[in-house]
Design goal:
227 residues; 2 domains; 4-stranded antiparallel β-sheet
C-alpha cells in the first residue's frame, strides 16, 4: 500500500481518503456473512454470524435510535467494555485531538445513520480493519470494526470491483471525486498516471481510465480489459 503523503486535516479529507476502500471491503464482508444475524460476546471480544464466522472486534461507539445521538465507546462510562476493545476508538480520538477534528473528539453528538457509515469507513481505513459492521440491537446500533483473514482473502477481480465500487461510493458520500479515486487506487497498490482531465491505472491485465470534468467530478470510468 502506498502511504498517504500527509495527514488528513478534516473529516471530509478522511472520508475522501478511506470511503472507497472501506466500501470495497464492505463488499468482501457481505460475501462472507451474507444476511446472517449477529451475536456479540464482549468478554471474548468477538462477533459471530454463525458457525465458522466468529471474528475479533473493536467497538467504536453506539447510536441511540430514540435521541438520534452518537456516543463514542471511550466516553460511555456505563458500558463496562474491556479496555482492549476500545483501542481503535482511542486511536481515532487521539488523531482528532492532534488535527482538530471535532467528530473524533466530541464524546457525543447528534447523528444520522449515514454518519455511522462515515465513522465506520474512516475507522476501517485508518486502523486497517477488514470491514466495519452496524450491529442493530433494537434501541440502538453499535458500530464495530472487524479483522479477519477470511474477509481479507475473499477472491475478487479488482478490474471489475473498482469499476463497480467507485461509482457507487460517490453516489453515497459527498466526496471530491478525483482525489477519492486516486486514494482508492493507491491504497489498493496501483500506480496512477494523470493528465489534466484523466486518472488511469493498470489493473489486472487491463487499464482503467477515469475522466473528470472541470469541477473534478467523474464523467466516465472506462475499462480496457486488455483481452
Amino acid at each position: 500500500m502506498t502511504p498517504d503523503p500527509s495527514p488528513a486535516q478534516t473529516e471530509q479529507e478522511l472520508l475522501e481518503r478511506y470511503a472507497a476502500l472501506a466500501f470495497d471491503r464492505q463488499t468482501d464482508l457481505h460475501e462472507v456473512i451474507g444476511d446472517n444475524d449477529w451475536n456479540a460476546d464482549m468478554t471474548a471480544g468477538t462477533i459471530s454470524f454463525g458457525p465458522g464466522l466468529v471474528f475479533p472486534v473493536q467497538v467504536l461507539g453506539t447510536f441511540s435510535h430514540a435521541s438520534e445521538t452518537w456516543l463514542w465507546a471511550w466516553a460511555n462510562a456505563q458500558s463496562n467494555l474491556p479496555p482492549r476493545l476500545l483501542g481503535q476508538a482511542q486511536q481515532l480520538r487521539e488523531y482528532g485531538e492532534q488535527h482538530g477534528i471535532e467528530m473524533l473528539t466530541a464524546p457525543d453528538f447528534d447523528a444520522t445513520m449515514q454518519d455511522l457509515h462515515v465513522i465506520g469507513s474512516i475507522a476501517s481505513g485508518m486502523c486497517g480493519a477488514s470491514a466495519y459492521y452496524l450491529a442493530n440491537y433494537g434501541q440502538g446500533t453499535m458500530v464495530v470494526t472487524i479483522k479477519s483473514e477470511q474477509i481479507d482473502q475473499v477472491p475478487k477481480i479488482d478490474f471489475a470491483r473498482i469499476s463497480t465500487v467507485f461509482p457507487q461510493v460517490i453516489s453515497v458520500f459527498e466526496l471530491r471525486h478525483r482525489p477519492a479515486f486516486i486514494h482508492y487506487l493507491t491504497q489498493k497498490g496501483y500506480s496512477t498516471t494523470e493528465t489534466a482531465d484523466t486518472v488511469s491505472a493498470a489493473v489486472d491485465s487491463g487499464t482503467l481510465t477515469a475522466t473528470f470534468d472541470d469541477l473534478g467530478r467523474l464523467s466516465s470510468l472506462r475499462g480496457d480489459s486488455g483481452s
